[in-house]
## 1
Amino acid sequence: MPEVHSTAYDSKIEGNVIFTRFDAALNWVRKNSLWPMPMGLACCAIELMATAASRFDIARFGAEVMRFSPRQCDVMIVAGTVTYKMALAVKRIYEQMPEPKWVIAMGACASTGGMYRSYAVLQGIDQLLPVDVYISGCPPRPEALLAGLMKLQEKISGERSFRNQKPELTEKLEDALS
Amino acid sequence: MTRQELLPSLEKSLGEKIQNKTEFRSETTYTILAADLREIAKFCRDELSFDYLIDITSIDNSGEEPRFEIVYELYSMALDVHLRLKLRISEDPGAVGTVSDIWPTANWHEREIYDMMGIKFNGHPDLRRILMWDGYPFFPLRKEFPLEGLPSEMPDVAFTKVTPMEGGPFVTKPSTATSKDREPRAHPPEL
């Protein structure tokens, strides 16, 4: 008589197999390993550093791997005042990031220009880049940045990743199936 | 030389070159002519131990003639004496000479004045802009330059736009426009 397990989990059948949607698996991987590009331009960068440090510990969300090379990054955190002199450099770094990529505008300056109603300051990085999450505050507390990161994770988990990445292949598949 | 003797000896040596002298809270200010600047600066450094140039600033007295005023803040490390030199210059290029060979720190101060006010210093070794980019067409601290800026475009380098100045959290102009008019990006169209 073989031993009967009382649990619902049958390791022989379910041991290394998980059933899910492909998009859900892909999004789960993406949202839990968001590597940030720390675009620290002003005092918001201090809060960004505090968020990465042990007290607030952005590693709990899988986003601790601050890369100073855009080629290894998923999300650009624009932390600080974007001057016109810096604006095209920020855009160029964004363009060097591989797809898929996201942008967080951290703080009042990066979102709208903030208190710098001035000839020298770009009035919001969204005039150059597609921003996914805006965070208010001057500067925002680390909790606010973490909340923004969680909002971005929420957004990513609803994305149709596979279709966005391989539009032609999904079309072909759909045609073949219909 | 003691600190009490310092300024009297300057007045004795350069008496006829000092246009005006004012004292305010034991700080001395001499008004001089732009043509005498380099001679006085050299004398201050070599003979009077003013070895430290704290700052150079410029003032735009728009509408007056001569238009610009330049202020040199000198300090003697050895004798703890502060001295201010002021001179007025017109808009003509080359109205004032550089002191960057006398105090090397003047190099960047004069570049900043050139960047913000458009005052050119004769004999400066490297008179480029220091804050704005090379090719920016305006001098932002001149009185006729608006706070909200002017549009400019330099492909692949930088661009500028006019900043919205009315309403908002940091009010710079009173406005009756609603936040929807002022910040259309904050009110996305209903989906």
Note: Residues 114 and 120 of chain B are 6 Å apart (CA to CA).
## 2
Amino acid sequence: MSYYREEPNSEEELLTRARQIAGLTLGQLAEEAQVSIPPNLQKEKGWVGQLIECLLGAHAGSKPVPDFENLGIELKTLPINRQGTPLETTYVCVAPLTNTIGLTWQDSVVKKKLNRVLWVPILAERSIPLNERIVGYPILWSPSRAEEQALINDWEELMEFISLGRVEEITAKHGEVIQIRPKAAHAKIRTSATGAEGQPIKALPRGFYLKKNFTQAILTNATL
Amino acid sequence: MPIQILPPQLANQIAAGEVVERPASVIKELLENSLDAGATRIEIDIEAGGSQLIRIRDNGTGIIKDELGLALSRHATSKVCSLQDLEAITSLGFRGEALASISSVSRLTLTSRTAEQAEAWQAEAEGRDMAVSLKPAAHPVGTTIEVADLFFNTPARRRFLRTDKTEFTHIEEVIKRIVLSRSDVSIKLTNNGKLYKHYRAAQDDRAQAQRISAVCGPSFVENTIKLDIDYDIVSISGWLGEPKIARPQRDVQYCYVNGRMMRDKLINHAIRQAYESRITNEQHAAYVLFITVDPKQVDVNVHPSKHEVRFHQSRLIHDFIYQAVHAALNNELVDNAVADAYDPQFKPIESPVKSSELYAGQITETQFERERQASPTEKIRTDQHDIEFSSSNQVGSSRDKHYAPPVYDKKSAQGVAEQLGNYTELMQPVTDVFDTKNDKNTSTFDKQKVSVNTFSDDSAVRVLSLVGEQHILILIADRLYNLPARVLLKAILLAKLHYVKNNESAVSQPLLLPVAIKTDEDLLCCWNNARDLLSQLQFEIQKPRHDTLVIQKVPAVLRNLNLAKVVSDWLMFMPATPINELAALNELVNIIANEYAAPTQSDINTWVQEFENLSDQSFAEFVQTNGHLVHYQFEPTT
């Protein structure tokens, strides 16, 4: 992408930028960023996110730092339908399956990743062609006390499964607002984990995801 | 069969099914009773693997004559008396059913004397109602319980008994567990009339080592790491077998929580994990560990045999045990390594994160973590933590010079004490996150809602019905009015717009999906003219591109309408400056009203209510001014 924008200097500036692209279509935005639209997202899953990053001036790329490094803000695009309901769960980070000893919520990656998030909803119903999809109203969000408590409760429960060697028992149904699901390119990938007897085992890598009810509530609270 | 209350003996026999599995379970219950009674000397006689006779004699406090009968009844105990007690159990027993259960499946005699009594009394429970008979007896202070002919009346259970030798081995195992946990109690075991073992009370470390050696074997005592860590609500002490004496069976694994022997999955898991990479998958670590936690933090009322506990903060306890064991093993092995640098079993574990273990996708995260750990602030915290830890551990380390304070993994940067504090908070139930939206849902207008019953007979104004889609028939006193529905709607819309314009507190609503309007020069010009009014009305409209206006926020009145059309139509109405505000507002109201479908009866009811809430004018007055009087006449009935 030849289009370049400096990282914003303040939350206010970031929000202003994000508001400026709200309501426009991905087609219009791709034109502004001087990039071509891929025929479909199958091969370029992260294209929408990258386009938004580029337009807002996020340059962390795949580096393990917040997208807006100086502001400590993560950028998350959130596909929604016309009724404003999220279409997918939201990936947060890899679930640690080893070295979980003494890990606290305060030190967890989930907490860090969700500390401050700029949510950018994207109207992304399947029936709408990519270039006609619309960028929604940006929401700069930090978890409220109640939201954080809900996150903590699930995180504690899920981490207990992992540390006590019950990782294979975790299903997407555990957790009210967070879930753990396999996160790997294909089902044959294996990583280290702890087994039921405390012995090392190999398990499918997992990731933390925010459930739709949680992101839905964020959207609803912000636009009511 | 009719429903009936079970006779006490049968009820006890049913309970015995859970508690009394074999002679060894009887021994366990009786020994625990003796210990709870403060005994320091216990003598156990076994005959024929315990199926013929089990006799336990202790020098505990004894039971007074009046309570002997109660001691044999079910649900009778001196160990708990309220729910509060149950939440913080400090005794080994508490269920109050052991003696009753045992006596229902055997011939049990209980002889006891307290220090206050001059003579001892013997109690026996017999028959279907388990009536207790008392007779005087000779006995020193303390209690003797004789259990003869176990399972004589429950042949099914008797058939499950193994050979005398096997049953005796089980009994021995139960005794070993008690011997390890209470080195201050002297225990004598006699089998078929011959003294089998005599564990003397141990006052000093040497005597204690002898006792452990008698139970776990001499090689265990010689190759152990002593552990003694005290941390706030949790402490852990005991002996860890070095990896080189790991065993092919789980036979030397003794773990106690608050003095009670446990076979708990969580604890075993933590210990196994701590031994990881030091022993093979087929080996089992040898250990004797005592974990002490605030009784309020555990629930032992999980299973009648009390082999399992529930920790209220299971992951925290798990991690604490892991860290304590891991650190102790680590330190010990580092010391050993000086003497034996080529010990193949020794693997230094420093940085727990090894990139080689990771699959490709995980690298990002762990790098993130690693950088986080390497950051200066984090380091300071880690250091502080180490200091904190070693100082609170001084008791343990000064007692045993050989044992250096464990160094926690970097990840546990936060002090355990602090973690504990956090946990209490963590465990609170969530106050529903999603409740907030309901609060917000009640809009500014709704809050001022005054209850108006439009159909009430007392009311002077009666909304009768909707005629021909657009006309509302209203009766005021005996006058009938026809009010066009649109007139009412517009009045409401106008009132709402005025409210928004005059109240800065009125919320404008962001559109989750902002609406873009294609614009030309004319429309842009109009937009420029109207900007002041737009912002007064809480509109937020941006022009991100030369040919596009985007509506991002609107006053609440306009929600759920076709905004692109409404706003562009309206903007086109305001080509010239200065804008006639009143005319502009009226036009907006017109445009919005056109978007509304024909109202239903319930819409009308809502509107009337809204009008009452919004307008200074009374509804009756409004109808009289804006409605048309309908002349009607009743045909006289013939």
Note: Helices of chain A lie at 11-21, 26-33, 47-56, 109-113, 145-163, 212-222.
## 3
Amino acid sequence: MKALKKVIQNLDPKFEKGGKWEKMYPLYETLSTFLFTPKHVTKKGAHIRDGVDLKRTMFMVVIAMIPALLFGIYNTGHWHYELQSYLNPEQYGAYSDYLTGFGDKVVYGLFQVLPLVIVSYGVGLAIEFIFGFVRGHGLHEGFLVSGMLIPLIMPADVPLWMVGVATAFAVVIGKEVFGGTGMNIVNIALTARAFLFFAYPTAMSGDKVWKSGTTDVIAANDGILPDGASGATALGDLASFVGDAPVVAGETIAENASSAELIQKFEGAYDPLHAIIGMIPGSVGETSMIAILLGAGLLLYTGVASWRIILSFFAGGFVFGLLMNLIGANAYMDLPAYYHLIIGGFAFGAVFMATDPVTASQTQYGKLWYGFLGGGLAVLIRVLNPAYPEGVMLAILFMNIMAPLIDHYVVQANISRRKKRFKTA
Amino acid sequence: MESTLDIFVKAIFTENMIFAYFLGMCSYLAVSKTVKTGVGLGLAVIFVLVVTVPMNYLLENYVLKEGALTWLNPEYGLSGSKTIDLSFLSFIMFIAVVASIVQLVEMLVEKFAPTLYGALGIFLPLIAVNCSILGGALFMQDRQYSTILDATSFAFGSGIGWFIAIVSLAAIREKIRYSNVPPALRGLGITFIVTGLMGIAFMSFMGVEYGKKKDSKTNTISGGAVETSQIINDIKQ
């Protein structure tokens, strides 16, 4: 370690202003601060400097996402082989069990998920470097987190070029035009996902993308899914409750079934325990509540994420879920409120997306409002908008653009309250 | 038929004047530098819409529409022998009504409510030429609301939607005021990009089904996402 530090220190003058490789400074700065704390010192005034800079803060978030990533790799493989077991019962029949073929599942998942991570980081960092050179600033650290978030919120089967295009769009339009890390107004990863969601809806929604290899299975089975198999997510099934042909896990249910029957079927197919562990199909990293809460624990312990946002986001979702129960106009509205929190990307959004310190509200009261309304809106979109089964992404995007307004009014309220205090005193 | 409340909510979110139809963009972009002026302009738009749309509704239904002049003489009605159709006049009549009402209201407000006048200030006359106001009148004509209450709730909803849009844009612009935006994009350029990103966020309301109807009566933009994906599926097959 000491030797490495010496090498870097010796290289230092060459990259300084007037040095031989002055132009390469952003690259050098990035790599050196990745290994050691930055060498900047405070020049004026009394400041306490901490070794935890932006890069380390961001890295903490990446570490917090690792459980979700690991589980996502296994889950991708599991659902791939689960689908294969319908097509090929002799060979893969036992694979629908969770632990059978664990190694195969992990290997398959690795081959599906790692390319997503590599493409996302590759494209994003390349663009960051270009902007860094052209605009003369170091590499912005913010992409460390975005680059990991993007693969985790994609379906495992999404074509790699789409990930690349979406990442490029999000980094350039979502972030760099605003001046880079810390200046963006909407979450980068969500911008990437929303871009794909609206530009290529068939690759991002429906019932053919959530289990890896679904299209191959369909092709091998004369254009339809094998009997009993299903490619939909829990949310996709729920969205069908509102329409004419309710479906639960591939089984079509009579249209006139009562909502209690539907809910019972749904609970049978996606029982809460499996949903919390994450044994349900979905985007790569979003399924496992346990893995996400592990990450949340680390983020809260290190103080990177705001407990106010996470707590109020869950509270908002739960309260609006209860509200829907009260209205109870259709089977979807009758779904027990806690279900909203454990299926789909709700927990993932609450922990990793809504807490983005740049795009969330900055004020303490504002954070409570931001989280509560975000969680509530997510449930509202899920239940009321059949076009979008998953509402979390759009709810957080919506709250991102509302956050500055919330902050503005929190600050204004604070000012007027203090003015009043001044007058009465 | 959609209920009055449905029309109201739809006008705010799904058919937002800014993000669904891009109406009233000029003042939306020009007057959104600070939240305070944004609020002023937004209030003025709500106010003018709520006043002029019902007024134009009456004009449309009792003067301009084909056969609307039955109350003068049954012969002018749809089933009469001399049916009169004045709808070719609607553009000029609507804009004249908007302009004159705004002037009238401005005088009245100045006389009787100086504080409100001070708050709305220059925005009131400015609004007379805002596209969203004429747009509101024309949408009202196009959608043929059945009662004046529906038309008013549409106007109020559209106004609130416009208000939300401009105020949130103003807050964002205040926030990014000191951002290191590339020189070429400073000012309007970045504002357009922000508007686009806000438009993506507002997409969350597209496709919400109002009322209980299921026979996809929702035309134009609402339900766009479902329909597009269906069309894509059809093409693929």
Note: The first strand of chain A starts at residue 247 and ends at 248.
